[in-house]
Amino acid sequence: MLADALASVQEHPMAWLALQLLLLMLAVLVSYAITRALLVRILGRAARITGPRFDDAILGPGVISRLAHVAPSLVVYYGSTLLPAIPDTVLPGLRRCVSIYLVVAVTAAIMSLLTAIGAAYERYDPQRARVHPIKSYLQLGKIIVGMVAAIFIAAALFDRDPLLILSGLGAMTAVLMLIFKDTIQSFVAGLQISANDMLRVGDWIEMPQVKADGHAIDLSLHTVKVQNIDNSITSIPTWRLYSESFRNWRGMFDSGSRLIQRALLLDQTSIHFLGAAEWEGLQRFTLLNDHLASKRAEFVMAADLDPVNVRRSTNAGIFRAYVRAYLRAHPHVRHDMDIQVRQLQPTATGLPLEIYCYTATDWQRYESVQAEIFEHLLSILPEFGLRVFQQPSGVSKAASEARLPRSIDDAFAHTPR
């Protein structure tokens, strides 16, 4: 009875073709279901072997579902030749379309796998991912997979051997080098940056030539994204970070200390030798006890001899010693790191007295400590008979000279008893 039904269907070409296509579609659905079940089982075992770190990558979104299309594509590719109802003129085009679909499905699965591997690497080992990012390598792998897929698709479209097309690309090497110049440069630069540990995700970098000043939030094959202080994003070509200079503040954060380096501009006309009254007035500075004790012998000797023939202390030198002692006693200055107070080259705007010390890296605390130090020093300057240099204008010059004492004796003379 079944044979009679098939014979009657064969008498109608369109019905016979529809039946064969229906059987082919049924075979495709069955092969897809079986392949998907097998992949879930096989890859599930592989995920258990690799552990919880990369199970999400192996069973990542799109990997199994796209790989499952391989078997149905093969069923259509080879099964179409077994269907006599399909015209010979349609069969080559159908097989080409199936070949292209097969290449696209495999390529998409590999792309999804590489993406899932990168996400799993960053999720389960963030510290290692920050120090040694693999995003650029994964992107390069995707480019290579895409190029290979393009060769196979071209071979399917023109019905040529893929090796023949690949050999023909050898003559286009110069063109390919020109097209992928930035990619090649960026990849080589990425290797050098990673090998020399020049940049990590989260590092604070400063690159004025591209107006970048902030944290590196993404390192990829072609670009490095920097989130600036104002929350704007600067994208820098990766090769520029290797071919040009930039400042990385990672060492500052790793050490837990930030440098304070600023200068006070002293009015050079306010610098003078200390007199007896000034020397006695400085005895009330507790921070100067050790320094004044070491200088007392010189001061006593200078009192008995002609001042031009002996060493004498100056108010600027005593103030420099006071600043050093103040910094060493400050609770928010790092005492285990360098503390320096030095004079720079005198200029037309005064004598720079540079403060060099370290404090916490926290931005708010750093600015607060720095402001506190210099506010104190500016306020204590008149106690040493010193003035800070400031460009005068109009009556401000006379007013400032009348207001600021020239020596510590003048300061005591106007202090209420």
TrEMBL record:
InterPro entries: LSM_dom_sf (IPR010920), MS_channel_C (IPR049278), MscS_channel_2nd (IPR006685), MscS_channel_C_sf (IPR011066), YbdG (IPR030192). One of its GO terms (biological process) is cellular response to osmotic stress. Residues 182-250 form the Mechanosensitive ion channel MscS domain. The keyword Transmembrane helix applies. GO terms for cellular component: plasma membrane. Belongs to the MscS (TC 1.A.23) family. This is Mechanosensitive ion channel protein MscS. It comes from Steroidobacter agaridevorans.
